Amino acid sequence: MHGSLIGDLKDINKSAKNHAVNRKLQNFVLSLLQDPNEDAAKRSLNVMIELYKRRIWNDDKTINAIWQGVMHTNPKVCAAACKFFLVLDYDYQSDTESEFDSDKEQQLELLRNRKGSQLSKEKKRYLERIIKQKKRAEKRKSTVKVYTDFLPIDMLYDPQNCAETLFSKLKKSNDKYEVKLLMLRLVSRLIGRHNLILL
To answer: For the chain, what are the domain ranges?
Structure first.
């Protein structure tokens, strides 16, 4: 479901962004994120983060929806959302780049690590072609520069309120030490990025 939803949205927004469909789906995914069911909340958060990385849903509504994940009662959902805001640079996945799916990667590894009889001419050509495509994709990726002037943390509607509510949640929290540390790092990042004063 996760992969098919992302693939369908990628196809819908290929030529131009379809705002009506995006708005309806954003509302649906946001309602799943607020669901007390841990699995539904984690999946919806992963969908939103993946669509942000693919530059399909990279607007402020999505960012503020992901912030709801930080305030979620489940520590795993909270930790995943905190990590999203703490990353300083995203490896954007462009639609123009040739994407290698996991099946091709596995075939490539099997062909490379093959022992015993020699490869047939056809399999050898296939292997060389895949390796060339991969090198070309990596070269293209290294030449394209992505400027991240606006990080997700910059697009929050009310950073002061976000920092205060997260800090009060942190004080009452009984979560694991790692989750508390992520929350504390996010509070300090908010204070530093927006020049906030937190009493």
So the answer is: 2-92+147-194, 102-143
